């Protein structure tokens, strides 16, 4: 069977090379006589796999030694709670930027633990842009500032790094981690669910500056204290071993591709193919502000929404799947993470052109 071009927002397409390697190694990993899924997480084989994955991620993202890399579970959604539980550190409030559905979820959860100061919101224009930093009302006493540099549903990406002075910057990078280089030293904490640009679901990566650890809220469960995992190399309990192995294969693949700078160039070129076409027609419409157009998630609508079903059906027949927009916003969304080849984006645009010709 042919593989399709999968535009899912997550779990998302993985590089074919990675899947093939995993298949080849599935029942007998490198001659050890068992699958990675069957290994003790404390055995030397798996310890090696985890250490290599961490080393490769550190190299790709240039993560300095005073940052811990944690391999956790619970999804990015659990980080909505773990961040305030661990980073309030005696303070009563935190700053949040509100740029869409994922920001809103993070804010809602944080409100269970502290006062939340919304530094700015783009709700006034239906979350189609990100307010510039001049518009933010920062609280110098905030425990941290949380933002979502790529809103997966709205397709709004922030390409600059906020300046929060001494207030630790926290980013939910679930849907744009590894898509371009970032300066980790500007952040106190970065988190991301794996199922978009890292690997399969079930793994959440946290990158945290060491000095922020060790002052959780009273009553924080052991498993929700970052320090538990930092002190135990993410092996306090059984980690998601197979997902870590798969992430490690993705990191190796990224290194073979030339690292994050090369991925950024590729992702710019890919996104341009689609946005250029969207700009050239009024049959389709892209709602996001130009300077915030995500390179990872491209939402668009058809001028005539009664054609949505036919569009999706025809796309599927062309091997282009998972294009339906999020249930909260409707329309279409093409997620074009690292693993989506430019050929997939070109095939989508060809299909969109033909569909326009037929129905326009
Ligand atoms: N944040 C962002 C930006 C996301 O895109 C998602 C998932 N789509 C989440 C958080 C929630 O992630 P999870 O399902 O891993 O909890």
UniProtKB/TrEMBL annotation:
It is an enzyme of class 2 (transferase). It comes from the Bacteria. InterPro entries: Aminotrans_V_dom (IPR000192), Aminotrans_V_PyrdxlP_BS (IPR020578), Pser_aminoTfrase (IPR022278), PyrdxlP-dep_Trfase (IPR015424), PyrdxlP-dep_Trfase_major (IPR015421), PyrdxlP-dep_Trfase_small (IPR015422). Residues 4-348 form the Aminotransferase class V domain. Pfam families: Aminotran_5. The keyword Cytoplasm applies. The keyword Transferase applies. Keywords: Amino-acid biosynthesis, Aminotransferase, Cytoplasm, Pyridoxal phosphate, Pyridoxine biosynthesis, Serine biosynthesis, Transferase. Pathway: Amino-acid biosynthesis; L-serine biosynthesis; L-serine from 3-phospho-D-glycerate: step 2/3; Cofactor biosynthesis; pyridoxine 5'-phosphate biosynthesis; pyridoxine 5'-phosphate from D-erythrose 4-phosphate: step 3/5. Binds 1 pyridoxal phosphate per subunit. Its cofactor is pyridoxal 5'-phosphate. Its EC number is 2.6.1.52. Belongs to the class-V pyridoxal-phosphate-dependent aminotransferase family. SerC subfamily. Homodimer. PANTHER family: PHOSPHOSERINE AMINOTRANSFERASE. This is Phosphoserine aminotransferase. The lineage of its organism: Bacteria, Pseudomonadati, Pseudomonadota, Betaproteobacteria, Burkholderiales.
């Amino acid at each position: 069977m042919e593989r399709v071009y999968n535009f899912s927002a997550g779990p998302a397409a993985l590089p074919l090379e990675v899947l093939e390697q995993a298949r080849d190694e599935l029942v007998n990993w490198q001659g050890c006589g068992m699958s990675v899924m069957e290994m003790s997480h404390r055995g030397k084989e798996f310890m090696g796999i985890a250490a290599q994955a961490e080393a490769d991620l550190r190299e790709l993202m240039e993560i300095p030694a005073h940052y811990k890399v944690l391999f956790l579970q619970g999804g990015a959604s659990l980080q909505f709670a773990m961040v305030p539980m661990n980073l309030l550190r005696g303070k009563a409030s935190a700053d949040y930027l509100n740029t869409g559905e994922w920001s809103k979820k993070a804010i809602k959860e944080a409100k269970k633990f502290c006062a939340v100061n919304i530094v700015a919101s783009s709700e006034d224009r239906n979350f189609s842009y990100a307010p510039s930093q001049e518009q933010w009302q920062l609280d110098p006493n905030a425990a941290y500032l949380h933002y979502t540099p790529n809103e997966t549903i709205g397709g709004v990406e922030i390409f600059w790094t906020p300046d929060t002075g001494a207030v630790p910057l926290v980013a939910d990078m679930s849907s744009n981690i590894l898509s371009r280089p970032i300066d980790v030293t500007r952040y106190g904490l970065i988190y991301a669910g794996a199922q978009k640009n890292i690997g399969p679901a079930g793994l959440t990566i946290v990158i945290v500056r060491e000095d922020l650890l060790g002052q959780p809220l009273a009553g924080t469960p052991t498993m929700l204290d970052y320090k538990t995992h930092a002190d135990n190399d993410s092996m306090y309990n059984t980690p998601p071993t197979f997902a870590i192995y798969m992430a490690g294969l993705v990191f190796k693949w990224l290194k073979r591709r030339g690292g994050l700078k090369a991925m950024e160039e590729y992702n710019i070129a890919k996104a341009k193919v689609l946005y250029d076409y969207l700009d050239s027609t009024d049959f389709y419409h892209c709602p996001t502000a130009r300077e915030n157009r995500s390179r990872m998630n491209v939402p668009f609508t058809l001028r005539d929404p009664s054609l949505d079903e036919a569009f999706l059906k025809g796309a599927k027949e062309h091997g282009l799947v998972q294009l339906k927009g999020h249930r909260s916003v409707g329309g279409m969304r093409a997620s074009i993470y690292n693993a989506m080849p430019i050929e997939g984006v070109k095939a989508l645009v060809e299909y969109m052109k033909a569909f326009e010709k037929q129905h326009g």
